[in-house]
Each structure stands twice: as structure tokens, then as C-alpha cells.
Amino acid sequence: MKNKIGIIIGREFKERVHKKSFILTTLLTPILMMVLMFAPMLISEYSDESTKSIAVVDDSGIIAQHLINSGEIVFEQTPLPLEIARTEYDDYYAILHIGRDVVSNPTDAYLYTNGTAAMGTEHNISSQLTMAVQKEKMKIYNVEQQVMHELNTRVVPQSLKNVAEHEDAGGSSTMVASVLAYVLSFILYMFLILYGVMVMQSVIEEKNNRVLEVLVSTVRPFDMMMGKILGVASVALLQITIWIIFIAGMACFVLPHILPDNVLAAMELLKQGVPASAVDAGGNMGLLQGILMLSNIKYIGSIIIWLLLFVFGGFLLYAAMFAAVGSAVDSPQDAQQLQTPIMLPIILALFVMLTVINDPTSDVAFWFSMIPLTSPIVMMARIPYEIPMWEVCLSAALLYATFFIVVWGAGKIYRVGILMHGKKPTLKDLLRWMRYK
Prior knowledge:
It contains 17 helices and four strands. By secondary structure, it is mostly helical. A four-stranded mixed beta sheet has the order 2-1-3-4, covered by helices on one side. The radius of gyration is 30 Å and the shape is elongated. The protein starts with a helix and ends with a helix. Mean pLDDT is 76; it is low at 162-172 and 276-282.
């Protein structure tokens, strides 16, 4: 039996690995991910934004003088009343009306746009109006600007690990943990959907070609299903392992060699537990902590191990259900209704992931990371925040235990479904097939 399953695994593996599409996606995806990471910065750097002209009607007589022109916005004060200005300046981006009582009433300001308003522009105008009103209030209350600057002090505590002196005191970067949570969750989402549907379509194709009817005479249906699932799972693991090795290698071995000497010195001071000196030497604490996390082989290694474990377990769980659906229908169109209940937990997990990033220790985050249908995505979003190890182990144990239960039921559906043709089954039919002995 094991030999037959091994033959099916080998067939599924070779069939997909030798395809040009597999080779191209494996090689190009890491490059595409890096491009997507740096593209927003490059676009922002080289984009040529058009200058927006804004006519200003200042009924207060004291605010417009504080508005500053920039490469994005040019203010032009007009003595015309608002009603006439809205007609005369209809070719401008907008007309800004500043009311008489804007100092005492911050809502007494209006922006009449002659097209679609840009959020960034509105934020720029709002910030300038806020500063202008603040300056006028300083005059009213006879407060010096230097005093106001000293009063507006923002305190941002630096996040450091509470560890013993001999341990790594480098701290943890919330920004890096959040980015990793996004990336890992979407990797799980992508693999569960793409490779799960791949299993389903493969079963449908072989069922329509009557290949399964020939194989069932020599191989048990359950063995065929497990061989197909494990074969595709091995392809997914190979692909994600190649990506991980490439990205981890860049982070751990290439990144430290391209950093400036002052940043390397600051990182060493941060490791030694002197964050104040590290900031003085290298600058931004968040950046230093992020680089330390990405170059920490132990941290990256643990992330990789758990990622492979949850990718494999999550795929096995969902692939069994997708295989059962594929065996029960004759075309992908017929499968849409049956696969909807399978897709919903995956989509729900992706939404829960967004709340996890805000608070990875919340009750919602904890319970959804324990429910097997959502745990692969939600737990991978929590792991970068270094949650207790017992929670990760319990989640993995529940995931694999549920897989054995699901694959038992999916195997019964698969056994009946591969021999059924011409009838579109319902969920009630699938439940009845599971009760067959």
C-alpha cells in the first residue's frame, strides 16, 4: 500500500515540477516580491505630481498669510467674495474659504473642489490651517513660539526585550513583526487556495478522463486521494522552501555586508544592551531593531520551521476537502457551490489576521489561532510577535489531529464520488456518502 501511495506521490510531483510554469513562478516570485516592496518608494521618489492651484477667500484676514506654497500646492489669495470666487476660479483645483470665526470655531473652513479631491492634498491643507490657527492663538494668549514648541513634546518609548544581561537585548521591531505577519498570512492564504484548487481540478480532470475508474481496480480510493494530496503538497513545500532560502539568505548574509559602518556599530551597541548609545551612533531605533530581527538566524530559522509546519498541515486539511469536492462533481462549474463552505474559513482567517496585527494577544486572536480551519493563517500572523510556545504547539497539534478526522470523511466521499457521473450532488448527499461503510 505504501509503495502504491509513493508511486502516486512521485507521479504528481514530477508532473508539476517539470512544468515551465512551476519553474517560472519559483524563480520570478521572489524577484516580484522585492519589486513590490521597493516600487512604492521608487514611484514616490520619481513621480511628477502636478501642482494644484487653490484660491483662498480669507474672511478672517489673519490665516491666509500663514499658508505656505509647496511643489504640490500653490495658494492664491483673492479679495473677491466667495460667491464670485467660486465662479471666477472654476479652473483652479479648489477654492478655500476661511470663515471669520475660524480661530474660535475650527469647523469654520470649507474647501470647494472643482473635481475629485485628493486625500493627501486635503491633509496638507488641514495641517497648514491647524498650524496657522495655532500661531494666532499663541498671539492671543501671548505665548512665545519657542515655549509652544517645548510644550509639544512627544514621548515615544523604545521597545526592548526584558532579558538577562547575557542574553540578546536587541529588542523587537513591531514594524518588522507586522510586515512578517502580513507576508506569512498571505503566503498561507495563497497556498491554501491555489494548491487546494489545483488538487480539486486534477481530480475532476482525471475523473472525466475515466483514469480513476481504471486505477480504482488496482489502488484503493483512499490511497489515490492521499497520494494526490501528498504529491501536490510536496510541490508546494519545495516551492516555498526555495523562496524561503532565497529571502532568508538575503536577509541573514547579504544585508549585513551592505549596511554602512555606523549602522553596524549601532547594531552591536544595541546587542550589548546600550540603546541610547546605539541611537546616537546609528539613528532610528526601529530601523536598527528591524535589521537585527531580519539578520537573526535563530529568529528567522524558527519562523521558517513553523511556516513549513503550518503550510503543510493547512494544505493537507484543505486539500482533503477540495479532493472530496472534486471527486463528487463533473466540472469546475459544478464545484463552485460545494467549495464555497471550504473557502469561507480561509477568507475569514484573512480578515481576523488584520485584528491580530493590532493585538496579537487578544482573545479573538487566540481562539481563531486554535480553530483548525483558521489557525494556519491566524497563527502565522501571531508567531512573529513571539507568543508563548505552548500556544503554537497546541495550535499545530489541533491542526494535524483535525486533518486525520477530515481525511477520514473526505476519503469516504472520494470513494463514492469518483464513480458517480451525471448527477450534481448536494451537501446532504455528501453527508450521506460519509455514512456509507
